[in-house]
Design goal:
364 residues, alpha/beta, Udp-n-acetylmuramoylalanyl-d-glutamate--2,6- Diaminopimelate Ligase, Chain: A, domain 1, 3 domains, five-stranded mixed β-sheet, 15 strands, globular, N-reg_PII/ATP_PRibTrfase_C, DUF34/NIF3_sf, GTP cyclohydrolase 1 type 2 homolog, metal-binding, DUF34/NIF3_bac
Length: 364
């Protein structure tokens, strides 16, 4: 396999279209046409990670965090980012980063946190509102079924637990081709009326090119009439954070002790106990202070995240408990998630979980 084939698999699972605008995801270093000798899966890419890739004959590093986050204006080896990139280039090692594209996936970073905590009835904490589009097109009655089927096969018409969803209105269309036209139905220079069906389907934004290709290849008209609109509907399968419930409620201290043990945290920083049972749990891997209000609005008893600042803890306002388990600790199982997904898709080269511990924080 070549690197691009692996990228296609990853982006089918977590499309970069849904990464946050501030992020830097995708292939950061390397030749996407190179044949793969092995892939090392890691949370972070550092010099030590590249050394491990070299030792294990891996010329692709699949990393959760991007080593290049802001623009590089020089490559002199003056800091850890430049040294890592230089070493990767010198050794023909490609680096791919997935980061918030996986954060936003329903079966991504936050789902695996919920799984480790045994949460049920899981839902996205902050559903995205910019990821659903609607296509409206017009087809001759006799061709409508063929066009709908092509759109469905391309991924259109999926709404939650339902597929093949569309709305159809029969009517009469009109058109007149000029001298340069080559109409399939009717004659150039003459106005023509045709019994048509208006077909409306929704689709995930990242599928747009595939949907349009299916439309154009299945439609009989020389010029296909269609409209595309972006919808503000909340996508319940995509977004930041997750909220779920414990099967059996527990007290705050017992929950935090179990949390610390499960995630092997050096310490768990938390806001004041409210002396209320823990039942509803919100999570957001990595830096999640921005979602405190969302966790409160969702009725969570506790919100688990990382990188909370001193004043962030005041935002609990005695409505929930805030728990900071550490950035690395909250995302440590991400590489296992990627390994599990890719190992079911790939058998032609070695997939290796990195042994290098990239956590920069240590505890006494």
């Amino acid at each position: 396999m070549i690197i691009q084939e692996v990228i296609d698999l990853i982006e089918d699972f977590a499309p970069t279209k849904y990464a946050e605008s501030f992020d830097n995801v995708g292939l950061l270093v390397g030749n996407r046409s190179a044949e793969i000798t092995g892939a090392l899966i890691t949370l972070d890419t550092l010099e030590a990670t590249v050394d491990e890739a070299i030792a294990k004959n891996c010329n692709l590093i699949i990393s959760f965090h991007p080593i290049i986050f802001s623009g590089l204006k020089k490559l002199t080896g003056s800091n850890y980012v430049e040294r890592t990139v230089l070493k990767a280039i010198k050794n023909d090692i490609a680096i791919y980063a997935i980061h918030t594209a996986l954060d936003n996936q329903h079966k991504g970073v936050n789902d695996i946190i919920c799984e480790k905590l045994g949460l049920i009835n899981r839902e996205i904490l902050i559903p995205r509102t910019d990821s659903i589009k609607k296509l409206t097109t017009f087809a001759p009655l006799e061709q409508a079924d063929k066009i709908r089927e092509a759109l469905f096969n391309a991924g259109a018409g999926n709404i939650g637990n339902y597929d093949n969803c569309s709305f159809n209105i029969n009517g009469k269309g009109s058109f007149k081709g000029n001298e340069a036209s080559n109409p399939v139905i009717g004659k150039k220079g003459e106005i023509h009326y045709e019994d048509e069906t208006q077909i409306g389907v929704t689709y995930a934004a990242h599928l747009e090119s595939k949907i349009l290709k299916a439309l154009f290849s299945s439609h009989p008209y020389e010029e296909v009439a269609y409209e595309i609109h972006s919808l503000e509907n909340k996508n319940q399968q995509l977004g930041m954070g997750m909220i779920g419930e414990l099967e059996n409620e527990t007290d705050e201290l017992n929950f935090l002790e179990n949390l610390k043990q499960t995630f092997k945290s050096g310490c768990v920083r938390h806001s004041r106990f409210l002396n209320k049972p823990i039942k509803k749990v919100a999570v957001l891997g990595g830096s999640g202070a921005f979602a405190i209000d969302n966790a409160k609005a969702a009725g969570a008893n506790i919100f688990i995240t990382a990188d909370l600042k001193y004043h962030d803890f005041y935002k609990a306002e005695q409505k929930l408990v805030l728990a900071d388990i550490g950035h690395y600790e909250s995302e440590q199982f991400t590489k296992n998630l990627l390994y599990s997904f890719l190992s079911k898709k790939i058998s032609s080269f070695a997939l290796i979980l990195a042994d290098t511990n990239t956590n920069p924080i240590h505890y006494l």
